[in-house]
Each structure stands twice: as C-alpha cells, then as structure tokens.
Amino acid sequence: MSAQIGVTGLAVMGANLARNLARNGFTVALHNRSVAKTDALLEKHSGDGEFIRTETLQELVDSLEKPRRVLIMVKAGGPVDSVIDQLVPLLEPGDIVIDGGNSHFQDTRRREAALAKKDLHFVGIGVSGGEEGALNGPSIMPGGSKESYAALGPLLEKISAHVDGKPCCAWIGTDGAGHFVKMVHNGIEYADMQVIGEAFDLLRSGAGIEPAEQAKIFTEWNQTELASFLIEITAEVLGHTDARTGKPFVDVVVDAAGQKGTGRWTVISALELGSPTSGIAESVFARALSSQAAQRAEAQEKLAGHEEKIAVGEGFVDDVRQALFASKLVSYAQGLDMLTGAAKEYSWDLRLDEIAGLWRGGCIIRAELLKDITKAYSAQEEPANLLFAPAFSEAIAGALPAWRRVVATAVQLGIPVPVFSSSLAYYDGLRRKRLPAALTQGLRDLFGAHTYHRVDDDGTFHTLWGEDKSEIVAEDTH
Ligand code: NBP
C-alpha cells in the first residue's frame, strides 16, 4: 500500500491535518523528527483512517505514490529549510513539497525558486482555523505553480471547510501568494479583534455595561450584519465567570495582548508596498502598547487625562455597533487593497472574490460580511476599493453619523479607540478633495529640493527658496 500524501511534523497542526486527511479517505504516511509524536498519534487516533508509520524521511518518501506529495508542518523559519534540505535529495522531478506552516511569503518565494531549479514543485499553503480547523476543516490558501495545484488541489479542497457546498480552498497564485494572503488574513484578524475590544471598552467605561450584560449585547449583534465567529466567541468570553474568584473572566486576565508575528509582518509588508493599512497597524501597535506594563503603570501616576465627565445618550450602544461595523469594514477594505498592491508588485493574479469566498468558512475571520464582499468583487466591474461597492458605500454612509459620535465621545471620555478613529481618518482622508499633502510637498521642496507637481501645469517644479523664490522646471526627484 502506498500513501497519497506524507506529513512530516506532527505537533498539533500537523497531527490534526494528517487526521483530517485520513478521515477523508486518504492514506497518510506519518513522520516526525522524534518518533514519539508519530507513535502517540497512532496510539490515540489510528481509528481515523489509513496511516503508514515511518521513522525516517527516506521511509516517508518511499511510502508515497508518485508524484509524491510531502506536507511539512514544522516550526516556521530554520526548521522548514532544514527539512527541505534533507528531503530534496530523496525526491524526483515532479514531486511536490508543501509547507503548511506560517512561513513568511518571501521565504516561500525563495524556496519555490530554489526547488523549481531542481524540477520540484514547492507549494506554500496558508492554513487558517487553528487546531480545531486543521482537524475539522480549515480555510486553505495554496500558492505555488498552477500545475502543482492540479495534483494537490483535490486533496486540499476535500479536507477544507465548505460553505454552501463550496470548498474554502482555491489556488491563490504563484510562489508565495498563498502565504501572503494568509498573512493579510491574520492582519485583518488583528484589526477585527481590536475593534471588538474597543467596542467592549466603550460599552464598559463609557456606558457602564458589565461583561455579563455585554455578552447578551454581543449575542444580539451576532444576529446583525456583524454576524461572525469572533463576535460569537466574544459573547462566550464576556459571559464567562472565573471559577476561582466569581469575577468576570475578562477582569482576571492580564491586559497585555500577545502576538506571534503575522500581524507585524503584515504591517511591515504594507509599509514596503506603500499600502495605507492603518487599521491593522494600529491593532499591532495597540497590542504592543498593552504589553508595556511598566510604562503604563508609571503613566497612570505621571500623565494627566483631563477626561470630560459626559454621560452617554440612550442610543450609545447602537452607535457603538454601527461604529464597530464601519471600522471593521475599513479594515477589510484596507487589507484587500493591500492584496491589490501586492498582486501588482509580485505579479500575482489575485482574485479577490475567490479569496473573500474562501475566508467564509474554517478561518478565524469567517463572517457574514464576506458573502457580500465576495459579491462585490464578483461584479462585472471590480471596485477599486471595497468601500466603493454600492452595498458598502451605502452601509458606511448610514453608519457615519453614529461613527463620528462614538469617536468624538471616546476622545472626550479618554477611551483609546485607535482603530475606530484611524479608520474614520482613513475614510475621511480618502474622500477629501484636498489633503495637506500639498503643504508636505512644499516643505520637502524647501528643505530638500524634492520638487513638486502643480495642479495647473504638467512637469516637475522647484522653487528657489533660498534665492528669489522664483520657480524653475526641475528633474523629478519625488
Ligand atoms: P510547532 O510550530 O510547535 O513546531 C513543532 C514541530 O516542528 C514538531 O513536529 C517538531 O519536531 C518540529 N521541528 C522543530 Br521545532 N525543529 C525541527 C527541525 N529542525 N527539523 C525537523 N522538525 C523540527 O508546531 P505547530 O504548532 O503544530 O505549528 C506548525 C506550523 O503551523 C507552524 O508554522 C505554525 O506557525 C503554523 N500554524 C499553527 C497554528 C496553531 O494554531 N498552532 C495555526 C496555524 C498555523 P519534534 O517533535 O521532533 O520536536
């Protein structure tokens, strides 16, 4: 008997993907650097399907049907290179090496190019949904060559989540496209969680609504256009009481948010692309600020607040809901806009309708909203920005008065709402006829002769600031 796919790296994600593959009828060869993990999986879960136990990479390779498919699920970074280096001499042209970890897309591009020279396919796949998703159906974002997808796609589509009968898995684009899209997905996830946190803080500190009561509000909100996995689990976390103290669970958890790095990568990448992804950036910074425990403690003693003691009105809760939706929409719009920028930069043909579609199930940001996003990008004329799609421009227009009220109230009360407010600034910036960037250009020209364009003439100009302030035609040094 030979296996249709081999999995090396059987920690939680690899083990669960291997089990998912076996449950879906595929024969799976198992390998882990230390054999103990392989045996533990077989001991507990051999009933999931057909497995082949192997102890070495040579045995793993020998157990596979051709073209071979080897899924690497080891720790991202050096370990992936190490496994590739050991695997490659054992493989034959046409075989497919798959990296399902959270690798940086530039590493994936490098690995794909190196393996292509040896006539091997290298496929970086983004896998979202955590442990539970890996076992029961994740959202899968595969990159690599289209040819490799023909051999790999059917397996991945079968084990992925399904929504309305459609798999949450589709070929994303060449080389690192899959890992890039997964990275941006994680960035949007950061923003999604941050806006929920801001809503929670506003309802608690602004309207005095306790977590248990908020759990009910979030449950109600989950019946609105906000319906999503994250809103659903927010209700669960806020409704949870700590068994030890009887206090709300959120009050006994240290308020310092961790991060594993994909949000940070998204922001670094956005900066490199010149993509205004402010919602995701503010979310990453908000986590960083939350973790500066010593400075926060000192600031409480040393920094004045001058908050205004205003009472929030009756409609505040609904205003917060609308502001949350509008800010969330902007974060998605920014993330998708970043994908458009990356597609140009890296020559990927990213289909935003398909990407939004495969985020609809299995992954952490799954949300009702994605159905409409898919629809917006399926329109004959794809919107240049998600917010331009009529359904969304109208939704934002409707939410705008509430959004402005909430941000203004938050500022008066001294409640930090970095994503609510930066998303509103992005929205206003985008639609503003004249931006102060004209002044920035003037300043840059004065101190650095960086030149400028005129609104009423073609060409590039420089003013002789240190002389008679006359204007000359200049070479473009923008
Ligand atoms: P870990 O990221 O914790 O990695 C542990 C695995 O890597 C073990 O199988 C370990 O083998 C193996 N490994 C290491 Br460490 N160094 C190795 C080396 N030099 N050579 C060979 N094997 C090596 O596992 P995970 O949490 O299952 O995650 C796997 C990937 O999936 C990661 O990239 C992660 O970021 C990504 N991911 C994780 C989640 C999640 O929710 N955990 C979600 C989505 C994606 P050993 O047993 O012999 O030490």
UniProtKB/TrEMBL annotation:
The keyword NADP applies. One of its GO terms (biological process) is pentose-phosphate shunt. NCBIfam families: gnd, PRK09287.1. It holds the Pfam family 6PGD. Homodimer. The active site is at K182, E189. PANTHER family: 6-PHOSPHOGLUCONATE DEHYDROGENASE. Its EC number is 1.1.1.44. Substrate binds at N102, S128, G129, G130, H185, N186, Y190, K260, R287, R444, H450. InterPro entries: 6-PGluconate_DH-like_C_sf, 6PGD_dom2, 6PGDH_C, 6PGDH_Gnd/GntZ, 6PGDH_NADP-bd, 6PGdom_BS, NAD(P)-bd_dom_sf, Pgluconate_DH. Keywords: Gluconate utilization, NADP, Oxidoreductase, Pentose shunt. The keyword Oxidoreductase applies. Residues 178-466 form the 6-phosphogluconate dehydrogenase C-terminal domain. NADP(+) binds at G9, L10, A11, V12, M13, G14, N32, R33, S34, V74, K75, A76, N102. This is 6-phosphogluconate dehydrogenase, decarboxylating. It is an enzyme of class 1 (oxidoreductase). Pathway: Carbohydrate degradation; pentose phosphate pathway; D-ribulose 5-phosphate from D-glucose 6-phosphate (oxidative stage): step 3/3. It catalyses: 6-phospho-D-gluconate + NADP(+) = D-ribulose 5-phosphate + CO2 + NADPH. Belongs to the 6-phosphogluconate dehydrogenase family. It comes from Arthrobacter terrae. Catalyzes the oxidative decarboxylation of 6-phosphogluconate to ribulose 5-phosphate and CO(2), with concomitant reduction of NADP to NADPH. GO terms for molecular function: NADP binding; phosphogluconate dehydrogenase (decarboxylating) activity.
